[in-house]
Amino acid sequence: MMKYPTVVLLAAMALCAQGTASAQPMLDPVVVSQGSVELHFSDIDARVGKIPPDKRAGVMDKPARIEQLLTNLLLVKHLANEAREMGVDQDPLVAAQLKLAQDEILAQSRIAALLADIDMPDFSEAARERYLSGPEKYRTQPTATVRQLAVLSTNHGEVAARQRAEELRAQFMAEGGADFDAFIRRHSEEKIAAATGGVVEGLRPGSTNDPFEQAALALDEPGELSPVVKSRYGYHVIQLIKKVPAQQRSFEQVRSGIVASLEKEYRERQRTELLDRLKAQPMEADPELVQSLRRRYYPGGEGARVLSGASATTDATGDADGSAPADSE
Fold it and tell me: How far apart are CA 275 and CA 321, in angstroms?
């Protein structure tokens, strides 16, 4: 339980932000404390740094998620302090795991520094060359917007569902075939048909292999009606509303996307070159010790005995690393 509710913490932070210009801000103030543990901005920055950059603002813009992050970080510090008091950090395996975690963080930081310091070339001409080498790659696909009447197999069974769909198609044609939208709202068995009129937008070739899609894209003229079509849900009658043909996009329309792809490829090459250079250094190993790894972790093996006494790397809460939930909204 936090010492203060989140709303109080956030209000206090807002007041601090409105302080006088003459006030000298602390370099790394205590944001929140609980018992013997404190959280500074540096602690929070370190945790938020693990969130993907494009999600940080969304995660940290919600009071409930701030509360969860602070609560979890405080829990981590409590558990870590108790572990130190117990001497857990002196355990050889735990000490090795701490060193490995540090090495992994430093390795990631090295790669991040490399990518941040790249002097990016001008890819304008390369982008044009890529476009001219395969302009067909930059054609839009034809798309179709349709409305559809659905008769569900779960409501009737396969044979009766098809028969019902055929009857409804014939009934619509007998009534003059003038207003399929209204007809769908009255007769379709799709749950949202009464609200949407059965409209389906953005159908394009290859998005699925469903016969429904194929039948919809086979229609050419607005108002054209398909035969009864089977899908995994049942049977449908489809009417074309609009069809947009494929179009060739110009270089200027796609230039920024091509340049972005070339820059991404360049960064990946730089990263790969660094890793390949390091991996290319001669490796020396003791063949017998390497071979022993095959059985080291068998039940009763030396490695299994070492690990059997180790503490779990995550606590019973499952989120002791201070994780905040992904921004799903």
Answer: 28
In order of 157, 166, 219, 224, the CA distances from 210 in angstroms are: 20, 20, 15, 20
Residue 77's alpha-carbon distances to 60, 74, 80, 199, 320, in angstroms, are 20, 5, 5, 54, 9
Tens digit of each residue's pLDDT (9 = 90 or more) over 27-40:
899 999 999 999 99
Structure token digits, residue 188: 């379709």
| pLDDT of the residue at 8 | 45
Residues 6 or more apart whose Cβ sits within 8 Å of residue 2:
9, 32, 34, 67, 70, 71, 74
**CB-count burial class (<10 Å; 0-12, 13-18, 19+) for 212:** buried
Q: What is the pLDDT of residue 248?
A: 95
Task: Check the CA dihedral 297-300-303-306 and report its sign.
Answer: positive
Closest CA to 240 of 212, 259, 215, 221: 221
54 CB-contact burial (10 Å; exposed 0-12 / middle 13-18 / buried 19+) = exposed
Q: What is the pLDDT of residue 209?
A: 63
Q: How far, CA to CA in Å, does 73 sit from each of 34, 247, 254, 304?
A: 11, 53, 45, 31
Distance CA 110, CA 104 (A): 10
Amino acid 25: pLDDT: 53
Below-50 pLDDT ranges, the chain: 1-8, 10-24, 311-322, 324-329
DSSP letters of 52-92? -HHHHHHHTT-HHHHHHHHHHHHHHHHHHHHHHHTTGGGSH
- In this prediction, residue 3 carries a pLDDT of 45
Q: Rounding to the nearest 10 degrees, give the CA dihedral for residues 174, 180, 182, 188.
A: 90
pLDDT of amino acid 290: 94
Q: Note whether 220 and 183 are within 8 A (CB).
A: no
Q: Give which of 175, 163, 170, 172 is closest to 235, Cα–Cα.
A: 163
DSSP track, 192-211:
THHHHTTEEEEE-TTS---H
